[in-house]
Design goal:
Chains A, B: It catalyses: tRNA(Pro) + L-proline + ATP = L-prolyl-tRNA(Pro) + AMP + diphosphate. Chains A, B: Homodimer. Chains A, B: Belongs to the class-II aminoacyl-tRNA synthetase family. ProS type 2 subfamily. Chains A, B: It is found in: Cytoplasm. Chains A, B: Keywords: Aminoacyl-tRNA synthetase, ATP-binding, Cytoplasm, Ligase, Nucleotide-binding, Protein biosynthesis. The structure is a homodimer. By secondary structure, the first copy, chain A, is of the alpha+beta class. The first copy, chain A, has two domains: about 5-340, Bira Bifunctional Protein, Domain 2 (BirA Bifunctional Protein, domain 2); about 350-445, 3-Layer(aba) Sandwich (Rossmann fold), CATH 3.40.50.800. The first copy, chain A, is built from 14 helices and 23 strands. Chain A has helices at about 20-30, 45-65, 75-85, 85-90, 110-120, 165-185, 240-255, 265-270, 295-300, 320-330, 360-375, 390-400, 410, 430-445; strands spanning about 30-35, 40, 65-70, 75, 95, 105, 130-140, 155-165, 190-195, 205-215, 220-225, 255-260, 275-290, 300-305, 310, 315-320, 335, 335-340, 350-355, 380, 400-405, 415-420, 425-430. In chain A, helix 1 packs across helix 10. Chain A is globular. The first copy, chain A, starts with 20 loop residues before the first helix and ends with a helix.
């Protein structure tokens, strides 16, 4: 993309309403615009990151064998009356009456609807196991929406639901989700720690939250520092292999890690004192096993091998897709702006032309731009008339991990500059070498 | 995808509520499930087609230089009070009150919000021309939703908005949209004819609808048969070239083509009588130029070269993404089921194992499946225990354009069968030849 043809409305001033750094930088980098309390437009740069995150979630869900579908945003109230949650859910549920006076609601989650789909179409235990998921906009009418997309009212969530014949099968689904989530977050450059949690309005016995450590997190967390040394890396997982998934879950759940809701002081003090850590954490996902809580009242049953009919064991599993943008920025920024991890960056590489209108720098930038695109990369070429200082400030603010700077003096020696946003280090090299280096970096992402 | 691990709930019976063929087949092929009047879940097969259509729309919009963003589904009523449409829009607008008693609505379209984004962030004529678009769920509270996704209440639409300095610039944006739409629909296997139309509640002077000819269409259309001979084909268009875009628009708007709303009997009778055609048509898109209708009341202005401040010229341009599934099926089916055009098919190729459990056919199917995937294709392998007849019926119903059939008798002679869903013709060949043929077909799509 050429910046002169893009819509990137960066702000010079820090907006007064933003209390935390991710909200400030998302506004200043022209990623979002508030349209009402807790309701945002995703401007082009923000939308691009949202799509990259969504794409990683889709890939990892499908790698684990989960099947995508899409449920609507609006739901009939009657489904929620069947589960008993219509009255329980409280004021966070946005209730709507249509022109025929039918009670509807904007879905805050989808346990009821997915159970309805299941009971309408699945009859036999032979169709199990099955995990269905979607990525769809949700609404929770928070009384005080704040922190930008971190606690918005309209938000994008991946929610998945497993249907299994037995408790043991459902626990494998639970483990499979934990494993796939570990990989999902790591691809986004995040360390998200699974912590034993409370189930809240979803219900159920087994549940883990995934928390990203950040000083602005909403929860206090307590953990054994051993857990932050764990890396998922590029291990190849057979998601059908119960023992393999269970072993990975054990690896990540053995070190102590809990939120204030489930914190156990005695257990915590069993950890060697130098490994006892407390911090704050941002919740970016949660997995639940809740057995037959929905399948029983709603009649989601299957016929078993012996001809009897039993309710299925279920769980639900969420990733806060839009909230992840805020969490990633909270975890990865400096005082100049955002530092995107390569896995989610909106553009792979910036190109800064220090002397727009100079025949040599223009030609060199055009060639670098074309070469990066030919390698399947997505560069942002700042071809505007701004001064060099302003161009660098924009690049630092929007946080592309790599920048190629092209100026007349360097070009005279056959050199451009390749700069890492994270370290700030620059290196002079030929344009060809810079292109090859950037391509090499993204080849492994 | 292996069918044994997929969720494809095909129905044997024709559901009573479905009046038109696309609705019947979408229900029978397990593509959608109604959750409330005019509100659907997109089951896995339907979701896949929806995503393919969305992807084509994104690609063609971006090819034309249009910039994607994403506006929320809910909007504050105040924005619509500024344009004067809050009271005008009538009962089709779903009005919502949140917990703080603020008036909200579920967006039926986005002229007001995009104008708000523009006026908040754009100051100078130098930032023009600009076209922003999104693909987002909309809601129109139709009094009698019917025909499945063809006239739903919650529906997915691409809506784009151009901002230009002058009338002439805006007319180029209009033409650019028409050209990009012609290409978009053709990639989906559709012939969508631009017809002069009425502007309705969007307002404006210039507008064309795109209609797909089908006996179940909601509009009566009148056209010169010369227009159905036009093909966009694989021409390379420079979307910045005004003359080139204008010439393509002229090519498609010179032959007479109008809906009953704008039909001119005298002009129609000037066409040679053998070319005078009437039919019914399904609207799948519409483009509008409406000048300063929104920019003036809402203060969306730019500073020009001479320092004066002028309201921008705007237009809006929609493609009915979810409705397109219905339109494509209406235009492409037979009495056995859907016939997907290659551009939008949910899976590229079916693989039918005539004797599941037989070592030879299983191994051959596994190898074909792996080979197709290695070529970047997305096959659906029917590895279930169903009888051959039932497998063929499912394949015909869900309408994949190509099928490779593997049976023990053919295999003994080193042959499989490649069948075209459209023609019904089968050809015996080696597995390698069938794989190569399928790959070759999709290489040009």
């Amino acid at each position: 993309m050429r910046l002169s043809r893009y819509f990137l409305p960066v702000l010079k001033e820090t907006p007064a309403e933003a209390q935390i750094v991710s909200h400030r930088y998302m506004l200043r980098a022209g990623m979002i615009k508030q349209q009402a309390a807790g309701i945002y437009s995703w401007l082009p740069l923000g939308y691009k990151v949202l799509r990259r995150i969504e794409q990683i979630v889709h890939e990892e869900q499908q790698r684990a064998g989960h099947i995508p579908l899409l449920m609507p945003t609006l739901q009939p109230a009657d489904l929620w009356r069947e589960s008993g949650r219509y009255d329980d859910y409280g004021e966070e549920m946005l209730r709507i009456t249509d022109r025929h006076e039918r009670d509807m609601l904007y879905g805050p989650t989808n346990e009821e609807m997915i159970t309805d789909i299941f009971r309408s179409h699945v009859e036999s235990y032979k169709q199990l196991p099955m995990t269905l998921y979607h990525i769809q906009w949700k609404f929770r009418d928070e009384v005080r929406p704040r922190f930008g997309v971190m606690r918005g009212r309209e938000f994008l969530m991946k929610d998945g639901y497993n249907f299994d014949l037995t408790y043991e099968d459902a626990m494998h689904a639970y483990n499979r989700h934990m494993v796939s989530y570990l990989r999902t977050y790591e691809r986004m450059g995040l360390q998200a720690i699974p912590m034993r949690a409370d189930s809240g309005p979803i219900g159920g016995d087994d549940t883990h939250e995934f928390l990203v450590l950040a000083s602005t997190g909403e929860s206090e967390v307590f953990y054994d520092s051993a857990i932050t040394d764990l890396k998922f890396g590029d291990r190849v997982v057979n998601y059908d292999d119960r023992a393999e998934c269970a072993a990975i879950v054990k690896e990540w759940t053995t070190p102590y890690a809990r939120t204030d809701e489930t914190h156990d002081v005695a257990l915590f003090h069993d950890i060697p004192v130098e490994r006892q850590k407390t911090s704050r954490g941002i919740e970016v996902g949660q997995i639940f096993y809740f057995g037959t809580k929905y399948s029983e009242p709603m009649g989601a049953t299957v016929v078993t091998a012996d001809g009897s009919r039993v309710p299925v064991h279920m769980g639900s599993h969420g990733i806060g897709v839009s909230r992840l943008l805020g969490a990633i920025i909270e975890a990865s920024h400096d005082d100049k702006g955002i530092i995107w991890p390569e896995g989610v960056t909106p553009f792979h590489c910036g190109i800064v032309n220090l002397k727009q209108g100079n025949g040599d720098t223009d030609a060199a930038c055009d060639a670098i731009y074309a070469a990066l695109k030919a390698k399947g990369l997505d560069p942002l070429y700042d071809d505007t008339d701004e001064r060099a200082g302003a161009k660098f400030a924009t690049q630092d603010l929007i946080g592309l991990p790599w920048r190629i700077t092209v100026g007349p003096r360097g070009l005279a020696n056959g050199k451009v500059e390749l700069t890492s946003r994270r370290t700030g280090e620059s290196e002079e090299m030929s344009a060809e070498a810079a292109i090859a280096r950037v391509a090499e970096i993204y080849a492994t992402i």
